User: What shape does this take?
Amino acid sequence: MSRAYRISIAESVRRQVELADGVQSTLELLPILAPQRMQEILAGELSAAGFDIQDGVAVRREEDGVDIQVDLKKATVTARIVKQESIEIDEQRTVRVEEEHLEEGTAAHKHKLKQQLERQADQTQKRLQQEVTEQLKKKLLDLQHEIDQLVNRTTAAALKEKAAQLGEIEDISEGADGSLTIKVRV
Assistant: This one.
């Protein structure tokens, strides 16, 4: 008759993971003036909105960790978030192992526990990735509105400049709905 032993096994999983997500879209800038001049006007608007401009790229880091980049030459906006997280899962169990299979049984139980912890860590990593993606989605709603306003102000400034090139500006009226009327004497 064999005896069964109750043994304690412990396993842990530790991971350092990088969670990232990003999206890129194109700015819809009308070619009212020469491309270089449109970039200059947009750069001024972005600078006023808190962007740092270096080598034709406007960059701003948000408090929530989202990085926003506007490439002035390519007319693209990129929003990206990168987070570092630690996943730590520890578990201890008491299992029964027959005396004649003590070593193999212990190893088998440890292996099974390790696999379960790895699956839990994978699920935790997926959940954290979904949270990062959701955070970026929420940020994009605010960002889209802000970028639209910057593009509208850039377009308005370009239209005023173009009107001044055509002749003498007699009147400029801007509506609350975003409309712009410029009277020019040619």
Summary: Residues 4-185 form one domain. The two ends are 111 Å apart (CA to CA). Helices lie at 35-48, 102-166.
